[in-house]
Specification:
The chain is globular. Strand 4 and strand 5 form a beta hairpin. Strands 2, 4, 5, 6, 9, 10 and 11 form a seven-stranded mixed β-sheet that branches. Strands 1-3-8-7 form a four-stranded antiparallel β-sheet, with no helix packed on it. It is built from no helices and eleven strands. It is mainly beta.
Length: 114
Amino acid sequence: VQLQASGGGLVQPGGWSRLACSASINIRTSNAIGWYRQAPGKQREMVALIRSGGSESYADSVSGRFTVFRDRTENVWYLQMMRLKPEDTAVYYCYAESSRGVFWGQGTLVTVSS
């Protein structure tokens, strides 16, 4: 199983960015898909998840600014990030959980700075 994340880079505060994750698994059979992040010197944290029933979960720090959504036909999901803040700077990892286990993408760096 492979997850390939893309997007990220340098973004100015208040700007936006979109991350994408392409998976080699059928996301329609996944228990959950989404995104985690790890900022320098901090532990990895959940950012946004979509569970199999369609419910979404967001970290309090991103709720109302970030949106996770998926394209089931292409086994791709996205993280739309709006009104970015310097504290959103982190390596973002896509994540998938299925009956076969837990899988991670390689991580993509998002830097929010002027």
